[in-house]
Structure formats: structure tokens, C-alpha cells
Amino acid sequence: MNDQELFLRVGELATAAGCPMPAITRVECSPRTLPAKVQPGTVAPELLLRSDAEQWCVEARDLAIAQALLAYRLGLPQHRRWYKRVQVVVGGLLALLATVQWGYLVGVSVVMALLVLLNIVASAILSRWFIRRLDGRLVPILGARAMAVGLRHMYRPLKPAGVLRWLWAGAEPRGSERLRWLRAAQPGIASVAD
Q1: Membrane spanning segments where (predicted)?
Q2: Beta-strand relationship, 36-39 and 23-27
Q3: CATH 3.30.2010.10 in the chain, residues?
Q4: What is the C-alpha separation between 154 and 47, in angstroms, rounded?
Q5: What tens digit of pLDDT does each residue of 63-72 get?
Q6: What pLDDT, in 10s, does the model give residues 108-125?
């Protein structure tokens, strides 16, 4: 796919997602680089697309781009900002309560353990809620079949060494879980094992 075709396809997906047309920037890919990400720009949003996007199947590329555009439109950057503020407030209250209850040394260690645990649980709940909302809105844009094919191509099994990183990053639903949700909403879709 050349740059002009990519520009036209991103424009179609942006229109369908209700997002303004973003500027497209290619970024070098690494194992931790998101397939596509939309961030606020100076004039319009900016779509950061991995440099290996041409090698993906059409469905996976469309899913990555539409998902990033829709996440931006639904306010993912604002959700993350508010989540960080809530973390700071809850952490401060827990620290105050624990130091009053158990003293400084014990209180700090208890608060740190609680904050890590609460962060993992809250991140998992919020990411699943957001992805479910996102998937519900992606189906009319891409179609259930194209979304299922894109999910099968984009998501790989989780390696044992990556479990802690996955948990700390918010425990986003894996491809198989998203396909189960899709199959529950659209009964004609086949599932895939993670």
C-alpha cells in the first residue's frame, strides 16, 4: 500500500470513527511499539503508525488504525489523565491512613504493596471496560468478519516472561477474549485460542 492509498484509507476510517483526519507519522517498530496510536497534535491529531504496517494483512491494519482513532475519539488520553490523578489521591489517603495506623516504616511498606495491587486491579477493570466499549463501536465501522480476522492476525499468545509486564500495563484483554466477546455479540464468528 503506497502513501496515497494509506492516506485515503485513514481518511475513510477517521470519517467512520467520527475523528478528524490525523497527520500520519511512521515510527520505527520494536516489540513494545503499539501498532497504531493517535495523540493530540498542534493542529490536528497525529497518527503514529508502525513502519512495518505494509506487511500486515488489510484487516489487521484497518483494525489497528480504526481502534487508535476511536480510542482517541472516546477520550482515552483524558481517561488516563484522570486515572493518574485518582491514583495520586488514593495513594495519598492510603499513605496517611497507614502511617497513622501502623507508624511510618510499616505504613509505607503496606501502602506500597496496596498501591501496586490496587493499580493492577483497577487498570485491568478499566482497560477491559474501555476495550469492550471500543469493540462495540468498531463492529459497525469494520464489520464483524473483518474485525475477527484482524484480531486473529494482530494478537499473539502471551509468553510466560511477559505476564508481569502485561499485568503492569493494564492487563488488556487478549485477542481470544476479544474474539469471545465478538462471537457473543455476533454469533456467526469463529473463535481462536490464545
Answers
A1: 86-104, 110-131
A2: unpaired
A3: 3-73
A4: 18
A5: 999 999 998 8
A6: 888 888 888 888 888 888
